[in-house]
């Protein structure tokens, strides 16, 4: 489903990603952990070309982009449609209701008629447990509810891959669980997902594979029980000892 070869990203002289290789099967949930500044967010943003990689080849499903060659806008747009991102700070439109936020993508990006988009949005809000909040505005919702709208909005684009960028780190602790539960359900349904998170329990319980990143490279990867219970690399051991 996803294949990444020798992915590099530079910001000016600062090389943030220094050659990432990864292959992911359809339906897998991968959790990316690592210290702050190690390049996790940049890696995720490169998968959606919110950041344009400096070098490397990324394939998602049937589309491949080679960033060592010039990439056309058309290619970027087509590639982007395959994944959808959930952000730390939800980024909902404040002047739109929950339902309108979820409808926006299908109507604007996919050109779906409003009645169909409304039905679809209602079903997605129900899926994330917010059927009764459809007509509320973001400011009327808790952070956890806003983030669940954010997930419904991403799902409305019918992505092949969901990308989560620290989706619970802006939330009060008591609201984290409801968002993780929605993500857990998605993984159980077979959604392919890449999740950057500090929620180690989620990583342990849900990830098919955990990647430990440091200094712009994947230092170690493996099944959650191996990474958390028997990390091989000293850097992984040190990181895990600091957070537990
Ligand atoms: P993480 O998600 O692991 O905390 P990031 O990917 O956010 O790491 O950042 C990795 C490094 O890239 C940091 O040193 C950060 O300052 C730098 N960086 C990220 N985005 C930009 C940008 N748009 N311009 C310049 N430097 C950036």
From TrEMBL:
Q: How does it sit in the membrane?
A: Peripheral membrane protein
Domain ABC transporter residues, every copy: 2-240
Q: Which SMART domains match?
A: AAA
Residues in the signal sequence: none
- State whether keyword Hydrolase applies: yes
Provide any one GO MF term from the record.
ATP hydrolysis activity
Tell where it localizes. Cell membrane
Q: Name one Pfam family in it.
A: ABC_tran
Q: Do you know which Gene3D superfamilies this protein is assigned to?
A: P-loop containing nucleotide triphosphate hydrolases
Q: Which UniProt keywords apply?
A: ATP-binding, Cell membrane, Hydrolase, Membrane, Nucleotide-binding, Transport
Return the GO cellular component terms, semicolon-separated: plasma membrane
Q: What is this protein called?
A: Cystine transport system ATP-binding protein
Annotated organism of origin: Planococcus koreensis
Phylogenetic classification of the source organism: Bacteria, Bacillati, Bacillota, Bacilli, Bacillales
């Amino acid at each position: 489903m996803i294949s990444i070869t020798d992915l590099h990203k530079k910001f000016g002289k600062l090389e943030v990603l220094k050659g990432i290789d990864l292959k992911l099967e359809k339906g897998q949930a991968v959790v990316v952990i690592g210290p702050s500044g190690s390049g996790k967010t940049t890696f995720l943003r490169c998968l959606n070309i919110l950041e344009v990689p400096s070098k490397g080849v990324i394939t998602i499903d049937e589309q491949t982009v080679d960033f060592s060659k010039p990439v056309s806008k058309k290619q970027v747009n087509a590639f982007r449609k395959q994944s959808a991102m959930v952000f730390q700070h939800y980024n909902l439109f404040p002047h739109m209701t929950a339902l309108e936020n979820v409808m926006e993508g299908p109507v604007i990006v996919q050109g779906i008629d409003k009645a169909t988009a409304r039905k679809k949005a209602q079903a997605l809000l129900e899926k994330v447990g917010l059927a009764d909040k459809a007509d509320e505005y973001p400011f009327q919702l808790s952070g956890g509810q806003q983030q669940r709208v954010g997930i419904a909005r991403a799902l409305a684009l019918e992505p092949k891959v969901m990308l989560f960028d620290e989706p619970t780190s802006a939330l009060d602790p008591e609201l984290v669980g409801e968002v993780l539960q929605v993500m857990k359900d998605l993984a159980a349904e077979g959604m392919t997902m890449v999740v950057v998170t500090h929620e180690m329990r989620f990583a342990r319980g849900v990830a098919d594979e955990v990647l430990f990143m440091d200094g712009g490279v994947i230092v170690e990867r493996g099944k959650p029980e191996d990474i958390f219970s028997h990390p091989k690399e000293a850097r992984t051991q040190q990181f895990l000892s600091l957070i537990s």
